């Protein structure tokens, strides 16, 4: 694709919010068959050279089917094609893994092998707001580039407190949750 945008996002499902983000930043979206890392590998082998940057976006648990991606295989695909890997843990954080730390814990994957971890406090943590986790440079970049949004949309102390409270109550009920956050 000679005149394609510089940044391509390759993902399976598609939330409206992620589609809007792609439209706003001008990225091209390339879906791949659900959870199929071999198909993703084949697509990337074909198109990777056309883009400066590619981000693979997956979810920790897919809400419609309740299935979980094979994270180590997606990390391998990321490494092979020099992409970024984004994992949306909205439905997995607080639920998946022995202590609820999500699919990184389930697969015992080095968390630094995922470039962007994103999650919400509105599901397992019974609050609202969310988080992005990654390397320091990414977080510094977001703090700087999204400063206006951080000022207007950051989580309220009461919502954060509620999420923390729920974590504490959950740890009372289920021992392994004690160290979750
Ligand atoms: C996969 C996924 N990511 C992110 C979100 C966003 O969560 P929130 O409703 O807290 O903004 C949702 C919400 O349903 C979701 O299903």
**The CATH C-level class name:** Alpha Beta
Count of beta strands? 6
Question: Which ligands accompany this protein?
Answer: pyridoxal-5'-phosphate
- How many helices? The count is 7
Class by SSE composition: alpha/beta
Describe this structure in words.
- The longest helix is centred in the C-terminal third of the chain and has 17 residues, at 157-173.
- The chain has a single domain, classed as Aspartate Aminotransferase, domain 2, CATH 3.40.640.
- Helices cover 39% and strands 17% of the residues.
- Mean pLDDT is 83; it is low at 1-5 and 173-178.
- It is α/β, with parallel strands linked by helices.
- Helix 2 (37-47) runs parallel beside helix 3.
- It is globular and about 50 Å long.
- Pyridoxal-5'-phosphate (PLP) is lined by residues 15, 59, 63, 88, 90-91, 120, 122, 130.
- Pyridoxal-5'-phosphate binds next to loops.
């Amino acid at each position: 694709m000679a005149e394609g945008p510089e940044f391509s996002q390759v993902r399976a499902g598609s939330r409206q919010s992620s589609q809007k983000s792609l439209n706003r930043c001008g990225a091209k979206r390339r879906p791949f068959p659900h959870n199929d890392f071999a198909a993703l590998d084949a697509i990337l082998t074909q198109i990777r050279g056309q883009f400066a940057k590619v981000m693979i976006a997956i979810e920790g648990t897919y809400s419609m089917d309740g299935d979980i991606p094979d994270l180590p295989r997606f990390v391998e695909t990321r490494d092979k094609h020099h992409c970024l890997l984004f994992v949306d843990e909205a439905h997995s954080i607080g639920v998946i893994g022995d202590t609820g730390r999500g699919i990184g814990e389930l697969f015992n994957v080095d968390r630094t092998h995922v470039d962007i971890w994103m999650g919400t406090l509105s599901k397992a943590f019974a609050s609202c707001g969310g988080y992005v986790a990654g390397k320091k440079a990414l977080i510094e970049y977001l703090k700087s580039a999204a400063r206006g949004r951080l000022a207007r949309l950051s989580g309220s102390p009461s919502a954060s407190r509620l999420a923390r409270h729920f974590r504490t109550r959950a740890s009372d009920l289920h021992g392994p949750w004690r160290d979750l956050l």
